[in-house]
Design the sequence.
């Protein structure tokens, strides 16, 4: 895209790169901010959902007659209220089947019916009156078990895609993917050392603090409103309209403030059900999930089983790399196996590389995106092997990584050739970092890992309005999940040349703007931010026109500089500069309101790399691991608001630490989730962690006027391996299965000491 | 649901004994309210005991301390004399929940909730604490370990309430300690808990000891063999080894989401050693 910018390297910024307070902060710390469950409508009903207690069961019949007769019940919906309007779109049909079970309940917690009633108590009572006749079927929750030919098959019409020939029988393997280049067999033939291992990781949940919630209000005239906590209200609008047969433009969706999403709020769960209940009851309906429902019924990420084989020469050059990845994504196709395969070796320069991935279905909730979906588990397997190979070679792990690191011009393992990238910069900076040289105490170990994420651009639409006092409102359609409004205001103010405090950003509803992609793929500060810059430039053009009109000179003779319109040169005339405020004040008489706008689909999202260093201390008698020190070094392209960039680095690291040490979905033999709450699903608490140290590197992305790269996701990619490597280095046992919970680590230590004793 | 807040234990016992439906006692409410909110229980009657005189008092008496049933964890932690006499009991009670929970949670509630993983209970059992029970037929006093009979089950009869917990008077050169294992650093539930209480003679030899284990059996367990391993020793390595063995032998845990059987057995011994060493230090031994 021609950006017509001064070089990102030389531009001097006045605001970009500073750390002002976020404008949504005041309302958030005082409790004024309105989240998903905070909306109220006159006459609203309380909704509640009946969910399958079985991991896998045929639903023979559903009798709602008693519930419907209960006083205070205004609507009951089941599969019968969700006719298939998906017109052959199998992805949409899966969403329809996930929000309300059809012929089978496919996991514990699968929605089977829903009720709207005058109070939550009546709604709960009504659920107890619904009789569901289940035929319980055998279930499978483990990815390797689900791939066996003897496994219970979830979908009789699911035939593996991506094979040379269509298989004769259905199975739980939805699709096979393959990426790579060169000849791995020839590469292994050149290797002096080959290491091969298998790894497993358990499913983890995004763990957002705010449960899903929405308030739906459908009018008999076919129009509707929806207030919802989501990462993408345009996505919610389009899915709901298509599933329920509404006209898209008649459904107005407003995004609430959001208490965390991390990818988990990029699809619909409650929303179509709330709309269906509201339509049937002709009253507003509010649905709010309990924590238990969040764990059982929304999307955690995949669990994975991965084999990695890497060959190296004696001098430490990788000759071939090969991996097979098996990801289960719950009851429907769509696990991020493909991203796992694409990203597994993306941080290395490889002549011979191959990754094969399988997307597998099991009787678990349908997975949803989780921060760099698919990459952390693949990175755990690969970076564990890299560490082990470095030890075998007698090379410092960081030198081994630097020697084989991808750089500008490298053909990536997933195909494209890299432009300017920051991987080597993060590795070199890590080597220089004081953390890297700090002494270790007894029972302590240090590990590191390097990681990659693609980043995304996508569709954005921004409107900018300048009222008569010269302040500015920018209306964006990307829900702010990580401080993006502050970055939008900084970039807009920078471009217009006015103070940050004069710009305010709002998240506009779906009827106010064109389509905006979901806030995901680390796209918002990059793509919607660039739309803000381009909308500001559009407004500047109009401001210059107005100044030209005020001066009575041609508009080409006006330039914009640091917040002022100025005559372009001596020929244009001798006028004192006009400030944005002065032009705005006069706007009523010079042509009316002044606005800027930009809509596009952004390309040029720069890929992002990070290197993490982690020190742990292990209690050898209990297997408990404590994180002693942790440093994130990551390329941000250009950090628009460094505090929020650091926050993204720290947040990703912490979620990765939880994944590595304690977080896991624990299933009983009955296929039911045993730990659907924060007591036994252990995300780290503050006292579990040291302050996560950060180092922002800025290798500009040529695809953005300021050089911005997305930063939100890369930070969760390396921690799993960094922690596992640190633990393995502390105790001398390689941990190949996550989480490295105390019982698992103690058992591994005992096995080794027994082996040594004998 | 009916809510009552009587001003005497006798009246509370009467309300409870007359109720035909499901009746629950509300002290701190840190277990009760969570269960109500999650729909796990639907009480017909809730009897709040916080307005009863003395229920929120810690009294130092001739024979030790009397702790009212509604005294919160935070109040225990702020009571200097109690903390000096029974640091292990107080540290155990202070581990329950979070800072916010500490403002409400009570030891009597922790005891009557009857979780095998209750943090204050192993420390109370090791301390030789007694519970004063008020019921329709009057008062009785029992050793705390006699109250929980299994997960969520107690020996209390209909209408009976724990009025207070009695901690005995301290002999000179005594100390106690409680340690638990949790995968996190706070806001968690014990995978294994160990309370150790010792009295030393002038030479530093253990003359009396009580050891109790939590989360390794259906109820908190007093382990006489573990106490025996310490008595008559200065807690040399050999004695601590025997202590660890006795504790491991006393475990009959289950495999569950919080830990495996073998993990619990091993860690019970490890924590017993560590807690014994802290108790000895607190008793003035080396």
Sequence:
């Amino acid at each position: 895209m021609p950006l017509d910018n001064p070089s990102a390297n030389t531009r001097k910024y006045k605001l970009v790169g500073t750390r002002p307070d976020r404008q949504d902060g005041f309302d958030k710390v005082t409790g004024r901010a309105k989240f998903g469950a905070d909306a109220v409508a006159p006459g609203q009903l309380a909704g509640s959902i009946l969910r399958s207690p079985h991991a896998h069961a045929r639903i023979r019949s559903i009798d709602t007659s008693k519930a419907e007769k209960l006083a205070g019940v205004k609507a009951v919906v089941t599969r019968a209220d969700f006719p298939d309007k998906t017109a052959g779109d199998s992805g949409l049909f899966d969403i329809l089947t996930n929000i309300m079970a059809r012929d089978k309940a496919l996991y514990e917690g699968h929605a089977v019916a829903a009720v709207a009633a005058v109070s939550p108590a009546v709604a709960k009572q009504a659920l107890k009156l619904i009789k569901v006749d289940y035929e319980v079927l055998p279930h499978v929750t483990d990815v390797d078990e689900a791939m066996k030919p003897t496994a219970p098959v979830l979908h009789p019409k699911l035939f593996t895609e991506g094979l040379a020939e269509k298989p004769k029988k259905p199975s739980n393997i939805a699709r096979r993917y393959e990426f790579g280049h060169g000849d791995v067999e020839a590469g292994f033939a050149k290797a002096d050392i080959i290491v091969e291992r298998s790894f497993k990781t358990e499913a983890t949940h995004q763990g957002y603090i705010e449960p899903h919630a929405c308030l739906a209000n459908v009018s008999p005239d076919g129009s509707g409103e929806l207030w919802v906590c989501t990462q993408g209200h345009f996505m919610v609008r389009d899915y709901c309209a298509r599933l329920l047969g509404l006209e898209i433009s008649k459904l107005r969706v407003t995004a609430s403030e959001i208490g965390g999403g991390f990818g988990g709020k990029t699809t619909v769960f409650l929303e179509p059900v709330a709309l269906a209940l509201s339509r049937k009851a002709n009253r507003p309906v509010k649905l709010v999930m309990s924590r238990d429902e969040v764990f059982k019924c929304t999307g955690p990420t995949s669990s994975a089983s991965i084999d990695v084989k890497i060959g190296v020469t004696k001098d430490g050059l990788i000759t071939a790399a090969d991996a097979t990845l098996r990801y289960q994504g719950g009851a429907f196709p769509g696990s991020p196996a493909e991203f796992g395969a694409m990203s597994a070796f993306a941080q290395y320069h490889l002549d011979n590389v191959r990754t094969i991935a399988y997307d597998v279905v099991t009787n678990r909730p349908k997975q949803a995106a989780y921060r760099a979906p698919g990459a952390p588990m693949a990175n755990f397997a690969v970076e564990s092997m890299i560490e082990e190979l470095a030890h075998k070679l007698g090379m410092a792990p960081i030198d081994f990584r630097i020697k084989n690191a991808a750089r500008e011009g490298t053909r990536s393992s997933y195909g494209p050739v890299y432009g300017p990238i920051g991987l080597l910069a993060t590795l070199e900076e890590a080597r220089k970092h004081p953390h890297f040289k700090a002494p270790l105490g007894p029972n302590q170990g240090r590990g590191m890992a390097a990681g990659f994420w693609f980043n995304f651009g996508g569709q954005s639409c921004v409107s900018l309005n300048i009222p008569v006092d010269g302040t500015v409102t920018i209306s964006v359609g990307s829900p702010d999940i990580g401080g993006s409004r502050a970055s939008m205001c900084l970039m807009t103010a920078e471009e217009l040349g006015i103070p940050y405090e004069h710009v305010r950003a709002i998240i506009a509803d779906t009827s106010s703007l064109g389509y905006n992609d979901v806030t995901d793929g680390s796209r918002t500060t990059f793509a919607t931010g660039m739309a803000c810059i381009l909308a500001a430039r559009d407004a500047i053009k109009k401001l210059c026109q107005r100044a030209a009109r005020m001066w009575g000179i041609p508009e080409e003779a006006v330039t914009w500089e640091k917040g002022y319109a100025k005559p372009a040169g001596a020929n244009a005339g001798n006028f004192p500069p006009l400030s944005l405020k002065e032009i705005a004040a006069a706007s009523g008489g010079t042509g009316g309101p002044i606005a800027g706008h930009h809509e596009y689909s952004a390309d040029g999202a720069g890929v992002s790399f990070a290197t993490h260093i982690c020190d742990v201390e292990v209690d050898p008698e209990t297997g408990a691991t404590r994180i002693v020190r942790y440093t994130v070094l990551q390329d941000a392209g250009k950090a628009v608001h460094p505090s929020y960039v650091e926050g993204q680095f720290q947040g990703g690291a912490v979620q990765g630490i939880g994944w590595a040490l304690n977080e896991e979905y624990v299933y009983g033999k009955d296929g039911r989730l045993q730990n659907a709450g924060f007591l036994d699903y252990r995300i780290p608490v503050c006292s579990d962690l040291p302050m996560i140290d950060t180092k922002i590197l800025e290798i500009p992305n040529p695809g953005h006027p300021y050089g911005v790269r997305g930063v939100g996701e890369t930070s969760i990619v390396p921690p799993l391996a960094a922690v596992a490597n640190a633990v393995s280095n502390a105790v001398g046992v390689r941990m190949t299965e996550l989480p490295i919970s105390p019982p698992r680590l103690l058992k591994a230590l005992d096995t080794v000491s027994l082996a040594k004793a004998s | 649901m009916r809510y009552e807040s009587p001003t005497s234990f006798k009246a509370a016992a009467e309300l409870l004994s007359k109720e035909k439906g499901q009746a629950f006692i509300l002290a701190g409410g840190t277990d009760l309210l969570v269960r109500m909110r999650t729909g796990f229980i639907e009480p017909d009657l809730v009897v709040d005991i916080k307005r009863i005189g003395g229920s929120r008092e810690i009294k130092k008496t001739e024979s030790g301390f009397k702790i009212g049933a509604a005294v919160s964890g935070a109040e225990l932690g702020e009571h200097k004399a109690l903390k000096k006499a029974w640091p292990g009991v107080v540290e155990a009670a202070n581990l329950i929940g979070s800072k916010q929970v500490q403002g409400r949670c009570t030891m009597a509630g922790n005891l009557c909730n009857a979780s095998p993983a209750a943090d204050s209970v192993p420390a109370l059992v090791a301390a030789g604490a007694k519970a004063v029970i008020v019921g329709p037929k009057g008062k009785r006093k029992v050793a705390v370990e006699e109250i929980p009979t299994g997960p969520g089950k107690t020996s209390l009869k209909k209408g009976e309430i724990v009025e207070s917990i009695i901690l005995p008077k301290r002999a000179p050169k005594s100390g106690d300690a409680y340690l638990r294992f949790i995968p996190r650093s706070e806001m968690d539930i014990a995978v294994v808990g160990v309370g150790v209480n010792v009295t030393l003679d002038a030479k530093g030899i253990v003359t009396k000891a009580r050891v109790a284990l939590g989360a390794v059996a259906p109820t908190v367990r007093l382990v006489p063999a573990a106490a025996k391993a310490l008595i008559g020793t200065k807690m040399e390595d050999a004695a601590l080894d025997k202590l660890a063995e006795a504790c491991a032998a006393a475990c009959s845990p289950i495999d569950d989401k919080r830990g495996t059987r073998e993990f619990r057995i091993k860690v019970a011994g490890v924590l017993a050693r560590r807690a014994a060493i802290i108790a000895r230090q607190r008793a003035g031994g080396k």
